[in-house]
Write a sequence for this structure.
């Protein structure tokens, strides 16, 4: 009996020892797999424009996204998993943007897309997102229809950029006041001949007339995008004898126009309202900002005038040796929202992240009150700082900003959406 | 189409002066670029698709030279010479290998250099657009002539282009060098058989044509912002001018450039939504009626 119980105990000891060895062995095989999963980076694809005439859009976007990702990774990432940006150059071609987006998702292992394409590219990427179902946040397209039009809306598509109609409302409000003060009744416009130029100009005048009924738009001039010479457009403006001129020319086109218009004396005794003037790329390129120029803020260190905004700007300048641009703050917000959604859902599931993004409010140095919200109804951001004002040739470039009132913006935006048939 | 506004303009002295001067301004720079292109085609028989990039290079070189010397004149000269030297290098090491080759091969070589130059400009000067700004001595109020407005800088630009047009005519028609170039254009093998170094002539013409494009870029720098890839739009317009004027004809380039300039300036009043279309229609009409161009030689 004793021998039998000793045999049984010995058997059990062997089983326990064998089992323990097996468990340790299995654990040692299993653990690298777990470690790999933990360190496996979360890939975020970023199609953008890094060559050609609009290369600075891509560079400004990329820089801001890199800053956001580095900050997230420095704080430990997602449970030790770092985020990796996979950036591709679409060369500004929509078909190329669509192709590389598919490649980023299908071949490069990207789980979501931070789309830093201009409007034409953004619409192309949006359709790929509709088709493949990955999460996309557009950060450079300001064409209102991208999110305002219900036909465009998809559950996994969002926009973290200013919207043309928001700018137009604040711009119309400000410009209407200035027009009243200075008796500016006769207006003309010069804007690039493509959808952004046409839509933005139409929206601006709609709201200018809403806030000041005495306005008359006598004519509009539509030079080609990236047109080098504006002589014939300038002489046309001179013939029209406007008291004020509106323009949504941007970047190098705006700089060329201002330089050429100055030698014609176009700005003399006229007020110029250029929504895209207050961007460091333009302000530093134009050697002397002429008088009588008003602009909406694209990105300025002083708007909003907060320590957080100034600190972000200084950090950007220190890292990249160049001032941030409008596309920079938009991508900073876009990547912040995306990373916040990853953190909040503790993963990269598109559906969960999309749900988390709807209505998400984040702390942001670019918010009117230190916060920016991703509106749930149409997946676009609100509460970002919008200001208009007259410009001076040095910092702060906009010394007397007229800050947009978001209550007014949202009320008028609702009316605009009803008028467009986007809502009933 | 706004024929009423157009009629009003041509019957108003101030508008006529302003728009005509605008046409001359637009045409002047186009003439400089297109002349180089047409000379290269006329003598070497190649279409230099990289010509717009040479214009871009001239602008950027002039920008750097201006920042160093604060002299627009020196900057312009350095811009033109710099591009001339580059064109010499481009011709000697690349283009001469594709003379007589299929046009697709020539296009490929030129397109490769368009991409290389765009990226080189981006690396050296950055991707952000640059602006030279108007030199101090041109910061004057515009001149008023019969009520029309003409900026001082543009008067200088038109004068330079006119001087180059006259100088070029004299060079090609009244000098031995011009005679040699014309001979090489008409019959390079006979020219070579006569003991003239056609290889050197080709290199010289290519460099000169490139220098003209560089000069145009440098002259435009005070009023046009620069960015990588800016040469493309100039290239397209230069081709239109060259086709209208006649491939290989310098006087044709002048006529074509002025025609395009006037179409643009008066078109902005009469048919503002269709200026580009009118330019292409003009080109198509010329191709149908006189395929060799207005001043081109009929080869039939």
């Amino acid at each position: 009996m004793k021998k039998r119980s000793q045999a049984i105990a010995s058997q059990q000891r062997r089983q326990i020892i064998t089992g323990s060895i097996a468990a340790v062995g299995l654990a040692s095989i299993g653990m690298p797999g777990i470690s790999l999963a933990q360190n496996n980076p979360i890939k975020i694809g970023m199609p953008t424009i890094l060559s050609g005439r609009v290369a600075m859009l891509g560079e400004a976007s990329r820089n801001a996204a890199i800053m956001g990702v580095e900050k997230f990774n420095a704080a430990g990432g997602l449970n030790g998993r770092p985020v990796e940006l996979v950036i591709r150059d679409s060369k500004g071609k929509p078909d190329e943007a669509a192709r590389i987006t598919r490649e980023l998702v299908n071949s490069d292992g990207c789980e979501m897309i931070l789309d830093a394409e201009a409007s034409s590219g953004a619409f192309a990427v949006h359709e790929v997102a509709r088709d493949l179902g990955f999460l996309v946040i557009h950060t450079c397209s300001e064409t209102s229809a991208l999110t305002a039009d219900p036909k465009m809306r998809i559950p996994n598509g969002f926009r973290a950029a200013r919207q043309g109609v928001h700018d137009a409302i604040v711009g119309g409000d400000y410009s209407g006041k200035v027009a009243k003060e200075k008796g500016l009744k006769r207006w003309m416009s010069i804007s690039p001949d493509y959808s952004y130029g046409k839509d933005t100009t139409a929206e601006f005048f709609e709201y200018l007339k809403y806030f000041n009924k005495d306005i008359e738009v006598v004519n509009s001039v539509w030079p080609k995008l990236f047109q080098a010479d504006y002589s014939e457009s300038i002489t046309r403006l001179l013939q029209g004898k406007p008291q004020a001129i509106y323009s949504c020319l941007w970047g190098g086109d705006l700089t060329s126009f201002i330089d050429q218009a100055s030698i014609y004396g176009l700005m003399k005794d006229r007020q110029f309202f250029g929504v895209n003037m207050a961007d460091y790329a333009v302000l530093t390129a134009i050697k002397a900002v002429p008088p009588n120029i008003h602009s909406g803020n694209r990105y300025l260190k002083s708007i909003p005038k907060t320590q957080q905004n100034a600190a972000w700007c200084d950090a950007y300048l220190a890292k990249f040796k160049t001032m941030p641009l409008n596309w920079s703050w938009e991508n900073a917000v876009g990547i912040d929202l995306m990373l916040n959604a990853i953190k909040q859902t503790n993963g990269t599931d598109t559906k969960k992240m999309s749900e988390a993004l709807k209505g998400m409010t984040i702390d942001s140095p670019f918010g009117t009150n230190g916060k920016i919200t991703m509106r749930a109804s149409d997946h676009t951001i609100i509460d970002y700082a919008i200001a208009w004002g007259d410009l001076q040739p040095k910092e702060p470039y906009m010394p007397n900003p007229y800050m947009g009132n978001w209550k007014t913006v949202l009320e008028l935006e609702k009316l605009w959406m009803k008028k467009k048939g986007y809502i009933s | 189409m706004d024929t009423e506004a157009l009629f009003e303009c041509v019957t108003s002295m101030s508008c006529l002066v302003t728009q005509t001067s605008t046409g001359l301004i637009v045409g002047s720079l186009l003439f400089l670029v297109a002349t180089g292109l047409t000379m290269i085609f006329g003598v070497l028989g190649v279409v230099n698709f990289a010509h717009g990039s040479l214009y871009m290079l001239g602008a950027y070189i002039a920008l750097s030279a201006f920042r160093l010397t604060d002299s627009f004149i020196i900057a312009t000269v350095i811009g033109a010479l710099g591009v001339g030297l580059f064109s010499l290098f481009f011709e000697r090491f690349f283009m001469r290998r594709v003379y007589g080759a299929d046009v697709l091969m020539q296009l490929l070589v030129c397109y490769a250099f368009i991409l290389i130059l765009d990226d080189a400009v981006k690396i050296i000067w950055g991707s952000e657009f640059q602006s030279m700004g108007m030199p101090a001595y041109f910061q004057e109020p515009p001149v008023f002539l019969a009520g029309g407005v003409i900026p001082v800088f543009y008067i200088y630009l038109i004068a330079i282009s006119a001087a180059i047009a006259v100088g070029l005519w004299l060079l090609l028609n009244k000098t031995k060098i011009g005679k040699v170039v014309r001979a090489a254009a008409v019959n390079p093998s006979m020219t070579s058989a006569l003991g003239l170094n056609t290889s050197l002539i080709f290199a010289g013409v290519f460099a000169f044509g490139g220098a003209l494009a560089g000069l145009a870029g440098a002259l435009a720098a005070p009023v046009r912002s620069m960015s990588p890839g800016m040469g493309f739009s100039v290239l397209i317009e230069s081709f239109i001018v060259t086709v209208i004027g006649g491939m290989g004809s310098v006087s044709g380039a002048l006529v074509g450039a002025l025609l395009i300039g006037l179409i643009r300036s008066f078109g902005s009043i009469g048919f503002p939504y269709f200026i580009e279309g009118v330019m292409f229609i003009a080109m198509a009409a010329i191709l149908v009626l006189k395929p060799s161009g207005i001043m081109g030689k009929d080869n039939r």
Remarks:
- The longest strand of chain A covers residues 42-48.
